[in-house]
Design goal:
- The protein has about 100 residues and is of the alpha+beta class.
- The protein has a single domain, classed as Alpha-Beta Plaits, CATH 3.30.70.
- About 35% of the residues lie in helices and about 25% in strands.
- The protein is built from four helices and four strands, in the order βααββααβ.
- Strands 2-3-1-4 form a four-stranded antiparallel β-sheet.
- It is an enzyme of class 5 (isomerase).
- One of its GO terms (cellular component) is cytoplasm.
- This is L-rhamnose mutarotase.
């Protein structure tokens, strides 16, 4: 397993709605994420910049491209597009982050 970190951008004024939607995450989406090999997934918000920071553990055989093609993933992106910066396919704009330190 390995760690993956990335950042996304929340539109201003949508903190409560973003949290609400994730507190009520669809069981079928959570199942798809787990089946794809995502574990220990957390998202943090920097309220000064509206930057979302995500960190997750991924199984060695994680296949993000297959996950991106699932109808439930596309449905979630459509659901979230009004409160986040998104790409033309409604997936969130993500910026990968390089790990420069880790302590167990």
């Amino acid at each position: 397993m390995y760690r993956n970190a990335f950042k996304m951008k929340l539109k201003s004024g949508f903190k409560a709605e973003y949290k609400k939607r994730h507190d009520e995450i669809w069981p079928e989406l959570e199942e798809a994420l787990t089946e794809a090999g995502i574990h220990d997934y957390s998202i943090f918000l920097d309220e000064e910049t509206n930057t979302l920071f995500a960190v997750q553990k991924l199984e060695d055989d994680f296949d993000g491209e297959s996950l991106r093609e699932l109808p439930i993933m596309k449905k979630w992106w459509d659901y979230m597009k009004d409160i986040m910066e998104v790409n033309p396919d409604n997936s969130p704009v993500e910026k990968s982050l390089e790990e420069v330190f880790h302590m167990d």
